[in-house]
Amino acid sequence: MGLHVLPPQPVGVAWPTREWQSAPCKSRRLEALLDLMFEDATVYGETYAALVVRGSEIVAERYSGALPNFVGPAIPVDIDTPLLSWSMAKSITHAAVGILKGRGSLDVTDRLSVPEWQQDERRNIRIDDLLAMRDGLDFVEDYIDGEASDVIEMLFGAGADDVARYAKAKPVAHAPDEVFNYSSGSTNIVARLVGDIVGGGEPGMRRFLTTELFGPIGMTSADPRFDATGTFIGSSYVHATARDFARFGLLYLRDGMWDGRRLLPEGWVDHGRTLRSIDPENCRGYGAQWWVVGDEFGSFWASGYEGQMTVCVPSLDLLIVRLGKTDASLGPNLYEWRARVTQACAED
């Protein structure tokens, strides 16, 4: 099956650069599903925000709970509360690479010129292999077993001050483009490359993201985080409101176009949403820094630890954003909820 056509902006609906338009929810099923998400933490964990957009209009929206605040009272969550992306940041990194590709500043088929890689098979790793999580590096993405986990050590341990250096030091386990291995380290190597091309350290990269990506789509709350070397931690750390994550999703749903301007080069969204691998651990499809649902609607999604999601559904011109804190054991319940929301929008 080919890729589903990405829908254009509906005539007469303003781009949500400054404000989102809202439309009355005509689906009782959809309202009930959002209510359900917040009613039972034993099923879905703690949900902070849930947002549904159809045809660039918000048709359902909920907020609840409070964020811990170690210097005062807990912070209530509302439309203005920035929330953590976790690995949805990987999809933002994909956008940053696309912008540079559109400028002609990089070619994803190029191999990385990492000096310590030149003496072994790592010298054959391409940028595209890293984006598709098929680079062959021996990186363990485990959020439970701290003894075995590379991602915990990279983000919170010995690698925290220089995440890309930590990831680059991993040995080769497979030849490039042979085996899928989901790896935050791979994304941080790409983020370092993007930062090196942009130049200017953290200020330069922050300025690039703001002027070339966040600013043009009105994602004003977006706050990317950096390590001590000035590398954007593109695997894991962007804070933004639910509405701003929806703006990012809309950019991809609109094929990289925004209000008459092409921000991502033609074909770049397809690069991210084209199925390349099946994760052997959970049987889910993966493209390049985006997960691929594989349903009849052409859905693809940015996914983050503890159940963060920004879902793009092309055939329904639909976006679903959910942010919260959910244990991995409850993850299948979230995926079922997402599917039920999609089906409700398809049938109502």
Q: Mind explaining what this structure looks like?
A:
The chain is 33% helix and 17% strand. With 348 residues, it is of the alpha+beta class. The protein has one domain: Beta-lactamase. The strands form four sheets. The chain has a nine-stranded mixed β-sheet, sandwiched between helices. It has a three-stranded antiparallel β-sheet with strand order 6-8-7. Strands 4-5 form a two-stranded antiparallel ribbon. It is globular.
In short:
The chain is α+β, with helices and mostly antiparallel strands and 348 residues long. It has a single domain, classed as 3-Layer(aba) Sandwich (Beta-lactamase), CATH 3.40.710.10.
> Roughly what fraction of the amino acids lie in strands?
15-25%
Q: Would you report the number of β strands? A: 16
Q: What's the CATH topology label?
A: Beta-lactamase
Distance between the first and last residues' Cα: 25 Å
Shape: globular
The CATH homologous superfamily: DD-peptidase/beta-lactamase superfamily
What does the main sheet amount to? 9 strands, mixed
Helix content, binned percent: 25-40%
Give the CATH level 1 class: Alpha Beta
Spans of at least 5 consecutive residues with low confidence:
none
Query: Secondary-structure element sequence?
Result: EHHEEEEEHHHHHHEEHEEHEEEEEEH
Secondary structure class reads alpha+beta
Order of strands in the sheet with the most strands?
Answer: 1-3-2-16-15-14-13-12-11
Please, how many helices?
11
CATH architecture assignment name: 3-Layer(aba) Sandwich
Query: pLDDT average, as an integer?
Result: 95
Total domains, how many?
Answer: 1
Rg, rounded, reads: 19 Å
